[in-house]
Design brief:
Chains A, B: Its cofactor is FAD. Chains A, B: This is FAD-binding oxidoreductase. Chains A, B: It comes from Taibaiella soli. Two copies of one chain form a homodimer. In chain A, strands 15-12-14-13-17-18-16 form a seven-stranded antiparallel beta sheet, sandwiched between helices. In chain A, strands 5-6-10-8-9 form a five-stranded antiparallel beta sheet. With about 475 residues, chain A is of the alpha+beta class. The first copy, chain A, has four domains: about 90 residues, Uridine Diphospho-n-acetylenolpyruvylglucosamine Reductase, domain 2; about 120 residues, 2-Layer Sandwich (Uridine Diphospho-n-acetylenolpyruvylglucosamine Reductase, domain 3), CATH 3.30.465; about 110 residues, Alpha-Beta Plaits, CATH 3.30.70.2190; about 100 residues, Alpha-Beta Plaits (2-Layer Sandwich). Chain A is built from 16 helices and 18 strands. Chains A and B meet through helix 7, strand 11, helix 8 and helix 16 of A and helix 7, strand 11, helix 8 and helix 16 of B.
């Protein structure tokens, strides 16, 4: 496909639209040239900030007619390069779509625009006594629209599910500018194909989401948090499964290899956790519920289960501050790793019980292909983030040998019944591995679906699929 | 599209296949000519009962090449005519696909073939201490594959969600005979488009499902059941919302208009429930959980909430037999209504809080268009089954005036943010109303998706879409 470069006539057109800010200054172009993925930079030709659905519609219709690529952008916290305008053209910066459209207390539903910060949405519904559970590590800055586009998870997915489990209906602008709703605001729906779930996780390649209807649940009153230090990392993974098999469903079960926690402590300059030399990994375990006494018992029972492994003393967070500190350490691991070295992050996910085996394989492949990794993630979901740090690796090994190692890793993940992205999406940086997860038939169906929604391929081009 | 009639050469081919029973006898053709939808009859030309995936694949490839329509069939308990071979050709009777393929206790997942009876699947996993919640009224006879194809719900959807919330991955045979998996056996997935959720609820129009991977949850230990008689039906609907707003999530909240319960009692020859003259409707409310004392308190609290309405004495089921009796009465309403009169069942669903308004509108439209209705269903989900009984209605009113009334009803449902089928699907009998739920753009996207999966349109032709 061949796209047009932005002409001055295009800029004039965009400037003529109501409710659109047209930005061509270097600062804004640079701001939209990167996200949180490695160190990638792709300068867009222009940044548009629409504020209304008709504005988005007019932009899309025009760009579709003129073969101008459009890359929708949330807060730019993505980890697969999904928001980067790799073929130039327009970055559609959705930050002005930041309002609550309707808070439906009678039906426990909220309709929100995609540019609202996830944490703000969570706080807003919490004040109403309600709970929107999915909370990616970047929740303080990421947008809900990005979460929907990547089908984000976060720590609480283990008990409460991921974004797709909360999205009831979406308003979206198609490539040609037409505006549709994907479904209805109902809990049960057997009316035609599920366009809503097709769009969730489609990474801005099928349309521009302009409204999101989410179901909410009643707020949960209590939670308790414990940090369990393991002397063997694989035992930490094994403990995850033992806890489930005993009938408990914690609201979070986060795994951190020693380096992950150590780097994060340095990064946030915290000394709140002691880290004896013989500790290889931690599990951060949260339980929540409405009955304090029962939660306490549950916490004790989980404590008993992990005692069967080779662990050091469990830290029970005994104040809101201590909980906050532990969660901050966990949430900052990604940034800490990034600040420490050039890195690549792989977002593996396997059936939960395969975690110890996955960890063993990662370390073995590291030896084989010469890479060091720091692993952490949502152990309760089988979702392990593998941060491969460049460290002393030569550029040629990094560029040539490492991708072979990643391929080998992904093949193992698929063999275990898993897949190559749990919550970060494929975007730009993982598309070369899509043919490990899917064969030509599956990829063919997906590409044809893309073609239906966006026949000219102007929407977030160069993402998900290799060609 | 024009399809070929079955020739003797086709029969010879089918007979040459391993693992396929070829049936052309009248009894089998008649058995597969109807489902539980009204009194429809469409005789297939041939019934094939494959037992293996390669057999399904060979059948599909052949039929695709020879333009022979293929209608996949489960247990024939559907309520929208989805399993009827309205264009003749092959009925693909999946009853021999009735095995558990893999019970993965380590990951709380089961892989099952589509022809297993839902109740048998539930019993199988219950013996392992696990729970597969979705339970349509027909669970004793319906197949899990049919449930997946219709995205069925049932009473417990209010707390536990519908089929789509449990399907992780599907193996399916496409129209051309190729076999794919739609996803991976994981709880989180951000890898390409969600083909799994696209296929759930697609009513056999996109492929033939041959394996289903379901996530399971730990079994729940206790449940309690109460039947609340209301003197005003709209108050019963209002009470549903009051219970949620007070922070309770019952595991079932079933609404039955007086006639529904009365007819069901006659039908199952039960006298277990007293039915004073002034009672207009009932709510059947179940709570479940692992802590008996708390459940008891919850039950009492719900009892207090409903006392604010004009109700008669609450019946608390105090034995397993009484619970069974009440659930039987609820489950048999559909059959009871069917045995009582010619009828049409509409499967409306609205945001839960709109239920009282929906009921009011149904009765008002009944007066306007001259129809009587018996309403019941899953009030907790806003999913109300409207059984329109022919009674004394003239044939011409039934055939001409009634569809206008149904259209008016569906327009109101859409206006309330609801849709025209919550769990029965569109199939044959509701397709003429699809343009009330969706506009040409939405329908166009869906039809193009159908065309990708099944370019010659041989899979369950004439369903979901008018043309």
């Amino acid at each position: 496909m061949s796209f047009s470069k932005i002409q001055s006539s295009d800029i004039t057109f965009f400037q003529s639209l109501s409710d659109v800010r047209v930005l061509t200054d270097e600062e804004n172009l640079k701001r939209c040239a990167s996200d949180e993925t490695e160190d990638l930079t792709y300068l867009p030709e222009i940044v548009l900030q629409p504020e209304t659905v008709p504005a988005v519609s007019q932009i899309m219709r025009y760009c579709n007619e003129h073969n101008i690529p459009v890359t929708p952008r949330g807060a730019g916290t993505g980890l697969s390069g999904g928001a980067l305008a790799i073929m130039g053209g327009v970055v559609l910066d959705m930050k002005r779509f930041n309002k609550i459209v309707n808070m439906d207390m009678r039906n426990l539903q909220v309709t929100v625009e995609p540019g609202m910060i996830t944490q703000e949405l969570q706080d807003f519904v919490k004040e109403k006594g309600l709970f929107y559970p999915p909370d990616p590590a970047s929740k303080g800055s990421c947008f809900i629209g990005g979460n929907v586009s990547e089908n984000s998870g976060g720590p609480r997915a283990v008990k409460y599910g991921v974004v797709k489990d909360y999205v009831l209906n979406l308003e979206m602008v198609l490539a040609d500018g037409s505006v549709i709703w994907t479904g209805a605001n109902v809990l049960k729906n057997a009316t035609g194909y599920n366009l809503t779930q097709l769009v969730v996780g489609s990474e801005g390649t099928l349309g521009v989401i302009t409204k999101i209807v989410l179901r909410l649940i009643p707020a949960v009153q209590h939670d308790m948090l414990m940090l369990v230090p393991f002397r063997k990392a694989e035992e930490a993974c094994a403990a995850v499964n033992a806890i489930f098999m005993a009938g408990y469903t914690p609201s979070a079960m986060e795994f951190m290899e020693r380096d992950a926690l150590e780097w994060s402590m340095k990064y946030v300059q915290s000394s709140g956790v002691s880290l004896p030399d013989d500790i290889a990994a931690h599990l951060l375990i949260e339980v929540d519920g409405n009955h304090y006494d029962q939660l306490y018992k549950e916490m004790e029972a989980i404590g008993d289960i992990v005692q069967q492994y080779d662990i050091d003393e469990i830290l029970f967070a005994d104040s809101a501050e201590q909980k906050q500190m532990l969660w901050t350490l966990r949430r900052k691991v990604g940034e800490a790793v990034k600040s420490n070295s050039i890195y690549k992050e792989e977002d593996t996910v396997v059936p939960r019980a395969e975690l110890p085996e996955l960890l063993r394989i990662i370390k073995q492949l590291g030896k084989e292909y010469g890479f060091e990794s720091v692993c952490y993630g949502h152990a309760g979901d089988g979702n392990l983030h593998v941060n491969i740090v460049k460290g002393n690796m030569s550029d040629s090994d990094w560029n040539e040998k490492l991708p072979q190692g990643i391929k080998a890793l992904f093949k193992e993940v698929i063999r275990m019944g898993g897949t190559i992205s749990g919550e970060h999406g494929i975007g730009l940086v993982q598309k070369e591995y899509m043919n490990i997860a899917f064969n030509d038939i599956q990829l063919g169906l997906m590409k044809q679906i893309k073609n239906i929604f966006d026949p000219k391929g102007i929407l977030n081009p160069g993402k998900i699929f290799l060609s």
